[in-house]
Design brief:
By secondary structure, this protein is α+β, with helices and mostly antiparallel strands. It has a single domain, classed as 3-Layer(aba) Sandwich (Creatine Amidinohydrolase, Chain A, domain 1). The protein is 34% helix and 27% strand. Strands 1-2-3-4 form a four-stranded mixed sheet, with helices on both faces.
């Protein structure tokens, strides 16, 4: 049985990533963190169903990209996402919560930052302040 797949070529994701990193540099940012499923799909090809468990894509000015996913999504992300690194967090109930794990694990690798503060603004929406 021959099953057709609908996967874009890596060159398409590289072109999209180049446009994003150029905009990051123009805006004089250290990097960007995307939580929206459609942005993550657009830049990485990784499709998922959002739940209460956060998924984040982090991209720095060098174009390095990493995905932050719940442990349940590890194999799915590694085999489908066009990223340099996949970092996971343990599922509920786990202390510390995922948004406290994100700055210490993923963002230090990608953004090489000194301080990150996260807080929930409203359920499902996070504010992230990054200082280099």
């Amino acid at each position: 049985m021959n099953i057709a797949t609908m996967k874009l070529p890596d060159s398409e994701y590289l072109q999209r990533l180049e446009q994003l990193t150029n905009q990051i540099r123009l805006d004089k940012l250290t990097g960007i963190v995307l939580f929206d499923r459609y942005y993550i799909l657009y830049y990485t090809g990784f499709a998922f169903i959002p739940t209460e468990r956060p998924v984040a894509l982090v991209v720095n000015t060098a174009g390095e990209r990493a995905l932050f996913v719940p442990r349940l999504e590890l194999e799915h992300a590694e085999s489908n996402a066009f990223v340099d690194q996949v970092t996971t967090y343990l599922e509920y109930p786990y202390i510390p919560p995922p948004m406290e794990v994100l700055p210490n694990s993923l963002m230090r690798w990608v953004l090489r930052i000194l301080m990150v503060q996260t807080r929930m603004v409203t359920p499902g929406f996070w504010a992230i302040a990054v200082r280099a």
